[in-house]
Design brief:
The protein is an alpha/beta fold. It is built from 10 helices and 17 strands. It has a single domain, classed as Leucine Aminopeptidase, subunit E, domain 1, CATH 3.40.220.
Length: about 350
């Protein structure tokens, strides 16, 4: 009989205790084989593969062109989609055809899923389990990897992010608090004129390789355990959040963001190529799933995202990958209809498809 549980019980279900910082370090054991990590609960004995996490820049990739890359767009109809597994990133990561695939996450610049800068790693990860936006949903699908990034990741001499956050924009002068960029005062915006945002070496993404998928959705807030031996690669990228954090009406803000987004999509494609070679024994390794970074909750203009993707059209051609851009909704503000006019030519010239999830 299928055992299911409620989303709010996600953390307890996996480890057998409630999330508190002292409990984590008392009851969780981290194993490291020199490349991949694994966590084990001392309470229920369950083990979860964390994969391998690294922060990558443009110089860290050495991918050779292979040709025959295809660009596809998946057209969704929100939760009414009859093929929900193609637009719900939790269900998609559980598909056997996507075992070994690489998924881009609309995250924050600390590779965690805070809704605001007032949250912190000390707030824990349990709250992500009932947040159905793309980033939290993607992260919750892999319990071990998410736990590792919050409590155990080794970075800049720190263990976990409780005392010091990862900052993917550390090479820029941008003010970042808890993964959020602040660009809404004259002082913050004035710094944009003093820096070359065109230099791709200034940008980094988080790459979490071969993470074990642990969580699948039955429906709504009802979850179940994933099938064994399901692995994906997760890429942590972000964008500016317009409104409280950044001024969308400033042309220098938009210009700097476009340079950032172009490079993040480039790094994501390069990572997809690398992963397709490293994990070619997995059937979905030649698939890369992209998202419209910042188009939803962060209020980024869809045409900006499309320009950033099209700036990498040659790399997509040469990638040898099946690249999928997932549009959760069909609307003309943030969904499929907002990106289709800008990207249909890229679909056509790469012999890709418009895939309906209706």
């Amino acid at each position: 009989m299928l055992r299911t549980y409620q989303a709010k019980d996600w953390f307890f279900h996996h480890v057998g205790f409630s999330e508190r910082i002292d409990n984590i370090y008392k009851y969780m054991k981290l194993k490291d084989d020199g490349y991949f990590q694994e966590v084990e609960s001392k309470i229920n004995g369950k083990k979860y593969g964390c994969g391998h996490f690294s922060i990558r820049d443009i110089k860290s990739f050495n991918c050779k062109p292979r040709g025959k890359g295809r660009f596809n767009i998946i057209r969704g109809n929100r939760t009414k989609s009859t093929k929900l597994e193609l637009v719900d990133v939790m269900k998609m990561q559980n598909l056997r055809d996507f075992n070994g695939s690489t998924f881009q996450c609309a995250s924050n610049f600390n590779c965690l899923e805070f809704a605001s800068h007032l949250e912190s790693p000390s707030s824990g990860i349990s709250r992500y389990s009932t947040d159905f936006t793309q980033g939290p949903t993607l992260s919750v699908s892999s319990f071990g990897a998410l736990l590792y990034r919050n409590y155990f990741v080794d970075h800049e001499g720190h263990k976990g992010q409780l005392s010091h956050d990862i900052n993917l924009l550390s090479r820029t002068p941008l003010k970042v608090i808890k993964g959020k960029v602040f660009l809404n005062t004259k002082e913050e915006i004035s710094k944009l004129n003093e820096f070359d945002f065109r230099d791709e070496n200034n940008y980094q993404i988080g790459v979490h390789e071969k993470v074990q998928i642990t969580t699948d959705r039955v429906k709504g807030h009802e979850y179940k355990d994933s099938e064994r031996n399901q692995f994906v690669n997760q890429l942590f990228c972000s964008s500016y959040s317009f409104g409280d954090y950044c001024d969308i009406n400033n042309k220098n803000v938009i210009s700097s963001l476009e340079n950032l987004l172009k490079t993040e999509y480039k790094l994501s494609i390069l990572s997809g190529i690398e992963n397709s070679i490293k994990y070619r024994m997995l059937q979905g390794s030649d698939k890369l799933v992209l998202t419209c970074l910042g188009v939803g909750y962060f209020n980024n203009p869809p045409e900006l995202i499309c320009r950033s993707i099209k700036a990498n059209r040659e790399l997509i051609h040469e990638s040898g990958l099946d690249v999928y851009l997932v549009c959760f909704s069909d609307d003309d503000q943030r969904g499929f209809k907002s990106v289709y006019p800008h990207l249909v030519d890229l679909v056509s010239e790469t012999k890709g498809e418009i895939i309906s999830a209706f």
